[in-house]
Every structure is written in structure tokens, then in C-alpha cells.
Please model this.
Amino acid sequence: MNIAILSSSIRSGRKSHYLALYFKNYIEENKLAETKILDLNEYKFPLFEERLKFLDKPDQKVQEFTSEIVQSDAVIIVTPEYNGGYPASLKNVIDLLHAEWKRKPIAMVTVSSGLFGGAQVTTSLLFTLWKIGAWVIPASFPVPKVNDNFNEKGEAIDKEGTDKRAKIFLEELIWCVNAGNKMKS
Model:
């Protein structure tokens, strides 16, 4: 199984990336799947001007990103909440692709510096993903007060409690991937 972890923030001093690191480490340590972090901060995509299928000469980075999404069995989107919404960098890549998201199992990890763990971003992101036909799994992983709960290496301060939540969250994602694979057979 191949799980792409999409780190969506490109902001200086971003904290949501800590969760991308955490999930990569957790998945690999528990031998659940192969993982790769797709860090939008490294891709430096131009602003959306047209869907991939309509671009005459898509940039090499766009082609690489698309290939990673297509080859993944599932995607974990890690996003901060900015003023009740998600970053423009994430909207940009969601809109860039279309068929590539269709029926792709997506798990959402939402992060905030406040008490609600990105609860407000969930609604807008969920609606966008539904509109393009992605399969958003029913489990979510909200992280309130990210500064108090993770360090820059992606290590959870409460490792035992966080790992317990991550296990349940990832079991749901893996179940959805397996269920989808059965439907394809």
C-alpha cells in the first residue's frame, strides 16, 4: 500500500508540517504502508490557471506531483486552519487535478494553534473534496494547540495517547482503501 501525505502549508514557521512528519514516521515504524510526503512548500506551484488536462506544457513538478497522487492508494491531507479555511496552496492543487482525485481515499488531518483543532476548516475542505469526487473517509484527526502537542521533528509530546488516536484513524483509512480495492476487483 502506498500512502501520500500532503503537507499543504507553505507559510513560514508552519506547524502543520509537524503532523506530516509524525504520520510518515508512525506509518513506517508500524509497517502499515510506504509513504512519501508531498510538501507543497517544495513544489512552488504557480497559481492555478487551468486544470492539468488542459495545459499544453505542464511543468515537470506538476507532472511529478500528479504521478505521486495517481500512484498512491490513499492521501492524507495535513492542513492548518487559516481564518476558518484552508491555505490557497491546497486549493490550488485540488483544482489543478480532477480525475486524479476521483474515488481516491482521502484522510484529513486538521491543525490549529487554538482549542478547536481546525474544526472550521473541515467543512470547507470536505465540500471541495466531495465536489471533485474524492472519497473522504469518515475518521478525522484534529490537532488543537499544535505548538503544545508536537515538536519540529514530528514527535508527539503525548506519544502514547497520540499513537492510540493515530492507530484508529489509520485503521479507518486502510479499511477504506481495502474496501475500494475489493470494489475494483
